[in-house]
Amino acid sequence: MAMTATEKILARASGKTAVRAxxxxxxDPELVIVHDGYVAASKAQLDxxxxxxxxxxxxxxxxxxxxxxxxTPQLVARGAAIRKAVREWGVEKFFDVxxxxxxxxxxxxxxxxxxxxxxxxxxxxxxxxxxxxxxxxRTGTEIICVLATGTMWVxxxxxxxxxxxxxxxxxxxxxDLGYRLARDFTNGTYGVEWDYRVLExxxxxxxxxxxxARVAVCNTVTEIGVANVFFPPNREIIADxxxxxxxxxxxVYSDSDANYEAKLAIDLDRLGPQVVLxxxxxxxxxxxxxxGQKVDHAFIGSCGSGMYDDLVVTAQILKGNKVAxxxxxxxxxxxxxxxxxxxxxxxxxVFLEAGAIVLPAGCGPCTRGTMAPLTSGxxxxxxxxxxVAGRMGAKDAEIYLASPATVACSALTGRxxxxxxxxxxxx
Amino acid sequence: MNxxxxxxxxxxxxxxxxxxxxxxxxxxxxxxxxxxxxEKLVPHLFEEVMEDFYKxxxxxxxxxxxxxxxxxxxxxxxxxxxxxxxxxxxxxxxPFNSFRGAISRGIVCHRRCEGITGxxxxxxxxxxDFSTGKFLNFTTGATAxxxxxxxxxxxxxxxxxxxxxLEKWRDTHLKTMAPETTGLNR
Lengths: 427, 186
What we know:
The structure holds 2 protein chains of 2 kinds. By secondary structure, chain A is α/β, with parallel strands linked by helices. Chain A contains 13 helices and 18 strands. Chain A has helices at 5-13, 39-48, 73-89, 106-109, 143-149, 174-186, 211-222, 235-244, 302-305, 308-318, 336-344, 347-354, 404-413; strands at 24-25, 31-35, 60-63, 93-94, 118-121, 135-138, 154-155, 159-165, 198-202, 228-230, 262-267, 274-276, 284-286, 297-301, 328-332, 357-358, 379-382, 398-401. Chain A has a 5-stranded parallel beta sheet with strand order 4-3-2-5-6. Chain A has a 5-stranded parallel beta sheet with strand order 16-15-14-17-18. Chain A is globular and about 55 Å long. The termini of chain A are far apart. The mean pLDDT of chain A is 96. By secondary structure, chain B is of the alpha/beta class. Chain B is 31% helix and 16% strand. In chain B, β5 and β6 (134-137) form a beta hairpin. The longest helix of chain B has 12 residues, at 162-173. Chain B is globular, with a radius of gyration of 18 Å. The termini of chain B are far apart. The chains are: A alpha/beta, B alpha/beta. The interface between A and B is medium-sized, with 29 and 28 residues.
């Protein structure tokens, strides 16, 4: 039976020869990723249920990305509770504060998530793993079921194929594509359902999208409620994964006659820079509608645009320039490895010379403003995962979303700025 | 009708299409104010649509809703209130994450009852066999055949959700697990 890549990965993980959209399966994960917001709560719930151990402590990874710098006594206490849980459960893949970085990035960078992998994770932005050709299913609070039993029920999602042609133009980045897709799904432009669908990309343009670009697309469409995003890994991504792989892997691809629920075609040549207006992540507009808006706060990085390539683009724009007076710019590398590389390759100096503030790897301000927050009435532009009211602190602050290049340019001028004005700086 | 344990009867409370999770199901201000405090959440269930809704219900009543029930961010508080009132749910469609949250909380529900809002009036007595998908409106005689709810999901709903399911799993599996996989040796 012809299958999509997601169906194949779920079938294999579930010990079945074939599955189809709508089937309920119980897949066996290669890895289970839980972030610091859920570890202590999961331990308390499983203790209360009288379930003392994990299904397999070798396949469980705890990331610390939401509260990397404890900013309240409660978060200090939570950190202690997490370390206690790690000891009692015997978790080996524990990445404490200052280690690893963002749990939606470093497992890929470290070769723990590979093309063809199946994993469970508590957090919805685990869709990032589709960038490398893996399938990660979000569990929410039901992660305790996976931690205890090793699995939980999964309905095999239908897949929509999106064929990309053309090439992102100068000043246009993968986040712009994701923002536009999110908008056009929810405003009905495509005329298809998107809830709990897999968006699978194909087409000649894919070879121009590296892992960082793929992560950005996965990240930007997630909040509208898709089940997953899947990029078939190309030679470059497989070769890179082979260098890092901590275990053998087999890339998985859809059959040419797989059953797609819908097929869409997008011409990248026609896409310009986007800005997402405050309130919801599907409110994208061409940047012209927002150019000139004053910004108090800017941030680049975290789960969606914290790959090293994103930081390189940012440095190209900031080099030799200063952040505008009255605007504060925070840079949040995705991983501690990227932080080290920023020092080794000179990016750190560029950022500091520009007057940017470099935060530790993790979520940065995008966790209700536990770090670098907004106050009432302020305006931010960022690469955050979402821009709902209160996401970075005050509920009446306004959050625009954009590509790393647009955010960097806007931080330099203090106003939302079209990155094509800085074209000479962009490769 | 059919299987006594999966065939459920109750009075229906009818709602329309597009019942937004954070406004019409449970206004977001109460989510922020009351967190997971079930007793404080219950009085606000559906209050934007029907004042004092919770006073009109009895355990076993059915919520009948149209398309896209509980859409938006899948905050659990509305579902927590529905579960606390022991209501069942039949809707024409609902986002997957809300559906999964409902199952997890032991709400017996069916999310693919196309056209059901056209088959009931508020207050009708209805019956649904979740294992066969057969629906009957006792008050009007209207019937419909929907897809059955898959057995293991239905089992979890009827058992009361994920936590009772985990308790059952614990009682049947834990004794047989090796110490090194349970953490019992630590």
